[in-house]
Amino acid sequence: MTRISAPQALIFSISTLIVSLLVNILLYQSHNDKNAELAEQAQTITELNDQLTQQRQLKSTQFARLDEMTGQQTELASIIQQLQGELKTLSQQQQSSAETARQAQQQLATARSRIQTLDQELKTAQQSLEQARVTIHNQQRALRQTSATQASVSTELSTELAAQLSSYDRDISITTAADGTTLINIPLTLLFANTNLDLANDAETVLTSLSEVLKQHPDRRVQVIGHADARPIVSDLAQTYPTNWELSSARASRVVTFLIDQGVSDHRLLASGRAANQPVRDGANEEDWSVNRRIEVQIQ
Fold this sequence. Notes:
Blueprint: H1 6-165, E1 173-176, E2 182-187, H2 188-191, H3 203-215, E3 222-227, H4 244-261, E4 269-273, H5 286-292, E5 294-299
Parallel strand pairs: 3-4
Antiparallel strand pairs: 1-2, 2-5, 3-5
């Protein structure tokens, strides 16, 4: 075996030391490179974490925005539905308004036609009214003339009757009413004897004179009215005439029958009884009863 010399051993030792140093340097350099790489990777991881956090925040924001947009979409859908309903209502109202307008136009046309008809009717009515006024004026003038004539005739008739009848009994009253009717009140005692239906002595003379005047005025209607007093009938007449109604009517009929016999037309004559319902006096004594018992002749 060859022995190594001291210098060789020293060189070998130095070489070994250098190699070891180089190895350590290389190892250190490798370690530093790894640390740098690790640091770089850590930085990258940090950046990635930051990006992930940002992405998460962005995603959260986007989800929130999405929720907000979803809510807005729902709200918009509700608004759209409401607007569609309002649009439908407005459309229906428009159709209804159109129908109402059409009906209003028809009613307006009908009203105008009615107004024209009424206007024509008014003109016709005005013409008729004017004609009626003329007719009424003529009738009033004729009525005044007739009234004047009737008044003249009534006055003449009253004068004739007064001349014929007043001489028989001063209690015979002859008056003329406002309508031209001549009223003659003849006491019952002048026409009937003993309150029965037998004519008194002067009755025929009085009634004959009355009939002569009536025949001279054939256009006048004559009503004969019997009046009684308020006392009930207690004589034998009660068997035939139980009340003053029957008795007063019978007396008026008796006078009418006599006038017919004297030639007065029966178409002009009317007999009626009033019992005691139209007294001249309200007293309850013989004098008043006597006045109330009468025959009234109305010449119209």
